[in-house]
Design goal:
The structure holds two protein chains of two kinds. Chain A is an all-alpha fold. Chain A contains twelve helices and no strands. Chain B is globular and about 60 Å long. Classes of the chains: A mainly alpha, B mainly alpha. Chain A: This is ABC transporter permease.
């Protein structure tokens, strides 16, 4: 119970910390809205050409765009400052201090990242989504259970996203410079989460592959829950399985890394 | 207080104010400083050659993702907004090369807000070189050539696949439009940096116009709402980067039914944008008050 309070406090700290960047948040809302507009028009052109592409109708495709803009920074699809900071701590050797804390390294950073994600959902995600709903016709569910299911899928997406980025950050123990892996994460995140194009539009075997990769938990699956295109429990099971597997892998890599840790400089 | 933020270049500036020679001399000083700083960063980049090759390659792949998205779309449809793939690739290539060149030359200006916040801009103010040249050349990233190369490849493919009735005038328009387009994007970068003097924490707003702008231009104008097309033609004239000249080259009607001669406007539009951005930059720099930290 004591440790539960600790991680709640860490999460609250993460939330508050990102809440202080008010101008940056407003700027982010503006940018997400502009990108949403550009994407919506290209999707409309695409769906005008081929109605029911990927099983969505036009309004579902429009809704998908705004869900994507709401979740882009929330689920850190292109990466976030949290793992960038963790990488910097590993590179400089400050991580040694973290290892001496009477708290679990992975849970600590997970809590902090969940706090960040929570703020970005409210601070950066909601407004572009509302803008989209006001200006364009959207396919929004009426049942509150669907909304609740969507929120659960988003939270599970947060955990999967963190688990991926934690592994990316740990690679710094071996590579020392994380720029390359960060870029690859960005690439995989944008492409395989369905951010640039819904995964059900991807043709043939490529589509089959991207739909089972962990990144599909980030945008495609929560969006499908909201659009009523996927079952709640099968979605949760898929996301949960990836979350558990990736977090466990993170633990393994973490113990391997800390056993060989050589603290840089001082 | 005001003295500490006064630009050292200001004295030299007033020497030649009003005379053409003075302006030209100042531009020469700026270009020379820009060249020297860039040469320094290139040397330091080349100290880690493998790292440079890897980051340039990653840049190439990352920026190519946009085109992969377009290819995926065309795996499902034959035309988008009435434009077939080779013509969309032509738009994409032009936008990507112009933006890539601008990003190479002035992309570092994105970080101005950071410099204002942490006070490191002061270091640049006390050096005897124009601040604009220093900020633009700061951490010059040669790896950004990756985007230019990627755009050039797509443009090369498009040129072999589209059907253009070439005339000497049209052949001249293409390179002129690319350079002018780079100028327009440079102006957006400089104006965005000027805005960061005021809103230090708002570099993302700039992304909406730079990265958002290049993404917008990768798709045919027919895809977008008329109001949006009007906005990027008359307010922020991004349409002159590729939509307007490309429509003319491809023998399509110009956006907003503009007359054909408008296709030759990009150099003028680009010059006007750069002049306005320069004014905005000067106003921004004058309003700068150091954090003192």
């Amino acid at each position: 119970m004591g440790s539960g309070r600790l991680y709640t406090a860490v999460a609250a700290g993460g939330f508050r910390r990102y809440a202080t960047y008010r101008v940056a948040t407003a700027a982010g809302v503006f940018t997400n809205t502009v990108f949403g507009l550009i994407l919506v028009y290209t999707y409309i052109a695409l769906w005008d050409e081929k109605p029911h592409l990927g099983g969505y109708d036009r309004t579902q495709a429009i809704t998908y765009v705004w869900v994507g803009q709401a979740l882009l920074s929330t689920l850190a699809i292109g990466g976030s400052r949290v793992e960038a900071e963790l990488m910097e701590r590993i590179r400089t050797g400050d991580i040694a201090v973290d290892l001496y804390r009477p708290a679990d390294l992975q849970l600590w950073w997970l809590a902090s990242d969940l706090g960040r994600a929570g703020f970005e959902l409210i601070g950066r995600g909601v407004l572009p989504f509302l803008f989209g709903a006001l200006v364009f016709p959207m396919a929004l569910p009426g049942a509150w259970t669907t909304w609740a299911g969507f929120l659960v899928a988003v939270v599970l997406g947060m955990v999967v996203s963190f688990a991926i980025r934690y592994l990316v950050a740990l690679s710094t123990f071996w590579l020392l410079d994380g720029t390359g892996v960060s870029q690859i994460t960005l690439l995989a995140g944008m492409f395989a989460s369905g951010m640039t194009l819904p995964l059900n539009v991807f043709p043939g075997p490529l589509g089959d592959v991207v739909r089972v990769l962990p990144w599909s938990s980030l945008l495609q699956r929560p969006a499908d829950v909201l659009l009523g295109e996927a079952g709640l429990w099968s979605t949760f099971a898929f996301q949960g399985a990836w979350a558990v597997a990736l977090l466990a892998l993170g633990r393994l890599v973490q113990s391997a890394a800390t056993r060989r840790v050589v603290v840089q400089g001082g | 207080m005001a003295e500490t933020v006064e630009r050292p270049g200001a004295a030299a500036e007033s020497d030649g104010s009003g005379t053409r020679g003075g302006t030209r001399a100042r531009a020469a000083v700026g270009l020379r400083a820009y060249g020297l700083i860039i040469a320094m960063w290139i040397r330091s980049t080349m100290a880690y050659r493998t790292s440079f090759v890897l980051t340039a390659a990653t840049n190439f792949v990352t920026t190519g993702l946009d085109f992969v998205t377009i290819l995926l779309m065309f795996s499902r449809v034959d035309v988008l907004g009435g434009w077939p793939l080779p013509e969309v690739a032509f738009l994409y290539g032009m936008s990507c090369v112009a933006f890539g060149l601008a990003d190479l030359v002035t992309g570092s200006m994105e970080r101005l807000g950071q410099r204002v916040r942490d006070g490191t801009l002061d270091t640049l103010l006390v050096r005897p070189a124009p601040v604009l040249a220093q900020v633009a050349a700061d951490r010059f990233a040669l790896r950004r050539l990756g985007r230019v190369m990627q755009g050039a490849l797509v443009l090369g493919y498009a040129l072999t696949a589209v059907d253009i009735a070439w005339t000497p005038l049209k052949a001249l328009l293409l390179p002129v439009a690319l350079v002018s387009g780079a100028g327009i994007f440079c102006a957006v970068f400089v104006a965005g940096a000027a805005f960061q003097f005021v809103a230090q924490d708002a570099s993302e707003v700039q992304n909406a116009f730079t990265y958002g702008g290049t993404t917008l231009l990768q798709y045919p104008p027919t895809v977008f709402g008329r109001e949006l097309v009007r906005g990027v033609t008359f307010v922020l004239p991004l349409a002159f980067v590729n939509w307007v000249p490309a429509a003319y080259l491809l023998g399509r009607p110009l956006p907003l039914e503009l007359p054909g001669w408008v296709a030759f406007m990009p150099p003028l539009v680009s010059g006007a944008c750069l002049a306005l951005a320069g004014l905005a930059w000067r106003a921004g720099l004058r309003s700068y008050r150091s954090t003192g930290s």
